[in-house]
Design goal:
With 123 residues, the chain is mainly β. Helix content is 0%, strand content 59%. Strands 2, 4, 5, 6, 9, 10 and 11 form a 7-stranded mixed sheet that branches.
Length: 123
């Protein structure tokens, strides 16, 4: 299974851009998905995450500007980015975590990562 990120590109400061991530085949046991980004010369950071229950969390730097959404069964994910800033410039990577439940609870089994899509915000 591969994750395929798309939608990156050049956007003006204050503009809007949506990036997407899709699985290469149907996967039924994805439990959470998220977006991470790495700006030039900086470490990878979490942008947003969403669980199967629909609970989403965001980095403080993007809260109120970015919205993460997924389909059911969590094989497609979007990140709607608004009011974009120069500091949003980065390569964005999508992530999916898959697992199953046994009598003891949830068991994490796989991490899937996309190849990254570059987002550049011009000033």
């Amino acid at each position: 299974v591969q994750l395929q990120a798309s939608g990156g590109g050049l956007v003006q400061r204050g503009g809007t851009l949506k990036i997407s991530c899709a699985t290469s085949e149907l996967v039924w046991n994805i439990n959470d998905m998220g977006w991470y980004r790495q700006a030039p010369g900086k470490q990878l950071e979490t942008v947003a995450n969403i669980s199967r229950s629909g609970s989403a969390s965001y980095a403080n730097s993007v809260k109120g500007r970015f919205t993460i959404t997924v389909d059911d069964p969590m094989n497609w994910m979007d990140l709607q980015m608004t009011d974009m800033k120069a500091e949003d410039t980065a390569v964005y990577y999508c992530y999916a975590g898959a697992g199953d439940y046994d009598p003891s609870g949830y068991v994490h089994l796989h991490d899937y990562w996309g190849q990254g899509t570059k987002v550049t915000v011009s000033s």
